[in-house]
Batch of 3 targets.
Target 1
Amino acid sequence: MQTPASKLYCTAQIREVERYAIDELGIPGRELMRRAAYALFEQLRQSWPEQQAVTVFCGAGNNGGDGYDVATLALQANFQVSVYALADPDGLPGDALSAYQDFLQAGGRVSDFEAGQSKLQGVIVDALFGIGLSREVGQDYALAIAAINASGCPVIAVDVPSGLHAYTGSVLGCAVKADVTVTFIGLKCGLFTGEAAEYCGKIICSSLDIDAAVLAAMPPFALLLEKLDLPRRARVAHKGRFGHVLLIGGNLGYTGAIRLAGEAALRSGAGLVSIATRASHSGLINIGRSELMCHGVECGEALHALLEKASVIVIGPGLGQDDWAREMFGAALAIDKQCVIDADALNLLSLQPKRRANWILTPHPGEAARLLGCSAGQISADRFAALADLHSQYGGTCLLKGAGTLITCDDTVYVGTTGNPGMASGGMGDVLSGLIGGLLAQGLSLDEATRLGVYVHGEAADSLALEFGERGLLAGDLPARIRKLLN
């Protein structure tokens, strides 16, 4: 039985379900371990049906016990089996010790791992660490992980790739790069954000045949982001029904950013899109895209009339942090309208923090660090905690960019499921802010506009990468594809 695909759980919740299964449902821990091994071995055979050899790395806890049970199943299936222990098997806890003893009774042999000497062959089973790892990987284990990653063999991880934090998705010094991860009971939130995408490969979840009602009774820690459907437009609709987005930015030398954001707002379906930018290049930005209404604005007073006409404000793309930028930022925040705060507007906000309910903040880790007064490394070490701090301090809807983008509004956390490394190029964030602003202008809530914007932004990049490849993907490629996906 598989668990629901959209719900994510923290490690404490998974442990509680496991405890309930043992204490209340009467399923012995040893039986759960056997079920885990069976699920993993079946996935191993399904993924690599031609393989007849396995190399199993076993650690010191129950994850190691899973590994010994997998090795036993492999022996019984006439596989060539090599097992390397990174901890004394005789010192294993109860169920794991029993799994080791069963492996020996089946005729198995265990060897100590020796870096540079031990032979790795077939499919490697990573059973070194489970979901409990919270400290940096020690030297002996690091050597084993390095050997696994350098082996060229296919790798399947038990529950979570060893070295990856199951809650935060951060790497604790080093981690196994798995081709497949078979996780148990429920999907762990750390498998979908931070550095996890580099290490997990394909993720399979087995419920271990625990009654689905047990997990269903527990509210998920987070939800995987899913696409929202936009309603069909009325046949008598006109542009006034789909909002007026005002984008503010494009300081000297940064015209491209505001142009990208403006085009994304248009392609999202906004009725009208205006740009307030420096007077010296206001006549250039809409060349080739005459639907953009561009205004040269050099002071906050001149911006006021445009702010009054707009239904949604997007500020930040190419804004800069000079006197002009600060004056534009102050004028935009003086009016109580829904707004999207991006790029340098976030940096200006960090200098004079405010809290509002009707805005969307879109920081990447560096901007989030400035908003929270910490380092980017601290943000990456626990993205969920950083997101909660952003929302607590600044209000509204907050998204934290990066692989596995995080979104929160009120009590619900969403984890992005779309996007690829081809998006690591300039202008992608500008497209996202314009897209979200355009969706907001069409009547979506802050939460809905952010969720749909993040999903479709990544989906557009994924479809383009599938067609042309990741390298050379440009932010300017996305708006036309966004239009197709929203329709």
Target 2
Amino acid sequence: MEGDLVAFGRCILHGPDAVGSVTSGGTESCLLAVKAARDTWRERHPGSTARPRIVLPQTAHAAFHKAAHYLDLDVDVFPVDPTTGTLPAGDLTRRLDEATALVVVSAPAYPHGVVDPVADVAGAAQEAGVPCHVDACVGGLVLPFWEAAGGGPVPPWDFRVPGVSSISADLHKYGYAPKGSSLLLFADRGLDRARYFALTGWPGYPVVNPTVLGSRSATSLAAAWAVTTALGEQGYVALTRRLVAATAAVRACVDGIVGLRVLGDPVGSLVAVVADEDVPEAEQVDPHLWAGAVQRRGFVLQGQPALTQSDGTGIPRSTHLTVTPVTAGLIDELTEALAGGAEDVRGQAGAGSGGGPDAAGGGVVGSAGLPDPAELARAAREDGELDLTAVLALIETLPREVSARMLVDFMAEFTEPRVESP
């Protein structure tokens, strides 16, 4: 079954000689791509005391930061254009040097749905002798069918692009399989071998692991095999056709809402919506307040906090929509909620527009003037709800390392078993 899935990936990603494996998800696929690049870099630099690093755009997925944290690599984060989400390829590729173990691009990048300039980056990486990984965890089973489904041309991004050394593509996203399955494919067999872990220097059985996990369940693998086999390429084209229509309807709806705009020119089924600052302030719509209003009308959208990049430019706060084939069957209700939600909050200032942590704390504030994560967790468990608008405003207000620690404290408290008094 794994061989069949890898063969399916070879076909749709246009890598007839690609090799790889099925992993437990996008995070593991990304981590293994980083491991393979790190180990290959070490082989090429024997005895070096330098720390290898990953070069990636600001919009690259958090999984690569996680991989670098686990595998002890530095991360060089390059800013993107805050108004379009696009990556200046020439500026990024000038950062490639002897310490670069891997460069990462996305097809598309999750935050804004924009496809990075894969051909430009991969070509420069090839000249520099640096592997280039394309993170297509979201788009890997959408973009191959997008044009055939009527969605228009897609910039080059797969194994047909010289210099692309590996691709991750999740089967549990737009492959429509249950969670727990992703594809990781390599164009270079030497790089592929570097994802393995093998050990014979212990008194137990010989160990060779193609993925992070030792024991792997066949459940998700079998489910992914069954879904892809049942659908086939034509089935995916048909589902993508529903995606194309639904995404076009969502974008048309947003384009018709005064005070909001789609950020950049996304390719595929991900859309990020920001406030349109070209209209008077009284007509603007805060995207986070909008998400809250739309949720009250029955649809859950995902808020994304504003971020100041290393060059001082600011990526605006946004609300993210992931369109699926199911959306096509609810498009009238959804667009009505999107338009109505905007009217509900038009001209209102968002929680992070001033007032500091106290204003964002939802009333559960500790002695330092910050929300108490334990109290937030207890309130969320009792009420079954969490004010995500306030959480996002808090992230925007506090230093990122502080808000990250608070999230850990919140989650640890939230998931701790409740102890009833005797």
Target 3
Amino acid sequence: MHDVDVVIVGGGPAGCATAAALADLGLSVLLVDAGVDRHKQLSGELLHPAGVRALRGLGFGDVVDAWPAQPVHGFAVVFSSPARTVLLPYGHGDTGLSLEHATLTLPLLEAVARRPGVTLLTRARVTAVEHNDASGVRLRFAHEGVEHTVSARLLVAADGRASPVRRMLGIAEHFTRISTMLGLTVDSACLPYPDHGHQFVGGPLHTLAYPIQAGVARVMVDLPLGSTAGMLKERPELLRTLPSALRSEVRRALAEDRTPRMTSNDDRLSARVHVGSAVLVGDAASCCHPLTGSGMTSCFHDARALQDALRLHREDLPLALERYASARRPAQRTRVALASALYEACAGQDEGMRALRQGMLHYWEHSPRGASASMALLASEESRMRVMTREYLCVVGHALVGIRPSRRQPVGLRAAVPLLRSVGPPLRDAVSTTMEQMGNWWHCRVGRPVYTLACSGRASPKRALASS
């Protein structure tokens, strides 16, 4: 007998969404939250329209309506050379939302604690996973100085990208540290397009900016690994590609804030998202560079995918977790690959990446369909790897046209080699994802029926395969 049906570790957006999704199935949920100070966290502040719809679908519509959020109508991509801005609106006139992380998360946590079937424990930390197999899990956690033990049918790790629970479960991950992010608050009036998220690309430092409340905007400056805020104070010329008003605001914020918030930017993709009766959701399963702003939308989609899988296979947890992993993995691989490719294109300083930026600018300015498809990928409305690969190849094609050698530009072909080399990872990811999807199809449509028939004794594997 289990104490509860589900234990969820982590009370952030992913944990709250998953708790709501599983409680809606009639499951008893224990939500264990460490109680970190979310006012100090530098993540989860921009929500695409797909994420807003997912939250409303999970029953958080009253919370969304009460947020003091700022509307976001799309992205403004500001190129430094040539000085040009491309607006990428959300499709169908949709609107996203942005607000400070704690203002977003705390109301979600309070709302989910009121849900029938959900018990919230704050300032509680999991110390060990003592047992985990197909029959259930048993774990220890500390709460108010006392050690407790709880058993459950399912354990959900929603404790962020560093995920102590993932390490306790022994799940490996593919990990790459990319850069360091410096976060500052400025007057939102200095943004060129106050109702958009901003990407400043092509300069010495890639920069993001978006409003988080009335009159206030967040600026995120991407720094090389090992850098500190002091580097920007000593070398203000690194911000020269920002508009003058925004540059002045950033310098003012640096001077006034002695301990600005900083975090690392990582690519993380877990080798697997379930083991025994434990499963990973949100950043605990995968995360990428935040320039796409897709993290929260992704974790809400994870919650819905887990809910759908358990609804279909309530009595067969291993099959439900297998279905969840199969449903989410292609979209996650696309999201991570897109963020990696886009970051290289926006922040790279070699000739190939400069040519790629020119191709991106030309593609978006001259192809409304291309701009719309690119925005669908950024906003998590489109998650097929083949679409991302197609769009990347279109950008590369425009870049190659732009570097045709001429008398005025005889060395343009030097950029072609790194540009063509950059096509390798997206193509490799597309092939890998296609092969994985074919393998999943074979396993579900052929392998599992063969195994089921063979185990029942009604048919030999050879006859079962022939009948399939």
